[in-house]
Predict the structure of Argininosuccinate lyase.
Amino acid sequence: MWGGRFASGPAEIMEEINASIGFDKRLAPQDIRGSLAHVAMLGQAGILPAGDVAAIESGLKAVAQEIEGGTFAFRRELEDIHMSVESRLTEIVGSAAGRLHTARSRNDQVATDMKLWVRDTLDGLDAQAADLQRALAEKALAHAGTVMPGFTHLQSAQPVTFGHHCLAYVEMLARDRGRFRDARTRLNECPLGAAALAGTSFPIDRHATAQALGFDRPTANSLDSVADRDFALEALAAASICAVHLSRFAEELVVWTSAQFGFVRLSDGYTTGSSIMPQKRNPDAAELVRAKAGRVIGALTGLLIVMKGLPLAYSKDMQEDKEGTFDALQALSLCLAAMTGMVRDLEPVPEVLARAAGSGYATATDLADWLVRELGLPFREAHHVTGRLVGAAAARGVGLEDLSLAELQAAEPRITDAIYAVLGVENSVASRTSYGGTAPANVRAQAEAWLSRLSAG
Ligand code: ARG
């Protein structure tokens, strides 16, 4: 394609380091779409005669069929998908094929192809994240009143409900989806027609190609058009944050399914056994979701580092945007699917959760709040009194509710036996009715609101 100035071909190693066809062949559908839009515009603008346009169009469709049908021969010496498609097009339609690349460069072509791929992928991730939200909101509704321990520092803090915990992830996923959509909106300007870097002297209609490919408008600066990989970085950044959310939940599932916690059961479908230890049910899917977050973050970091030293406009370094972006966004898609399956099948164990919720003096804050509310103690003093009571109970190895009234009154004489009501975990969660709080009625209402929002799309 560019042999005119060269007396001999590339070294074997040059070909190996240069070729991207091994991984960019997945851009074939986007590449052909872009070429179809480009050639139609060249025809409409009177740059190419109608006969050539028709020949190129039918040739491109034939190439697309060969690729779909698996009969297309990808050859490393043709470097990348752009040259591979054009070379085959030349074989099929002859010299007219040589006119397709008028007013275009691989630089604007590859930027367009990648944007189309990332855009479709972001749409898919958004839909998958919505599925996971739905699974979580359904679980939340079913367990709006299932009491469990809430943690800070992984130490028992205050009782919450299982549904409340699920809805925390629904909120995180809502922000993730917002980032996917935001990235999509910013991405949606078409680089095609920027040519190599400076634009072109042909009277092309960039608005027409932008529109044909579903972009909102053409990019405004030809240098920026071919030098920009922000769209991939943004998609990877949004994907990384989402992957981190999934990883945190995966970590909780790993901990919760251990024999020591026993908070939840994963289904057979999402666990594996051990070849030596017959008792094992390993949470491999959750562990892999946790691990794959590393790949996604790695891809973001890798591409940031590729881009950071590049002068304008295009440099071949930018070809390295692909493998990491493809791999990371696919990995996230798989993680979302696996997480959705795990959540659908997930069974919390209410007895274990309730028992755990009551241990670790998780209702100490309720006791302190009672002293404030009923006796008018300043909160700091109530905190101090409660601390003494927790110390006394811990010394005897019992819960706060096991202290006698006399023992309670030794710390604060005005305490009455009405205080026992707030020491239970059910009362504790039921009292948390502040907006966004864990009271079962709140959780039920939030879960229902999410489910109707999600079914509205
Ligand atoms: N395969 C290349 C890439 O992915 C296409 C652009 C090549 N452009 C060039 N001037 N060598 O970046």
Observations:
- The beta strands are 147-152, 155-161, 189-190, 217-218, 264-265, 347-348.
- The mean pLDDT is 96.
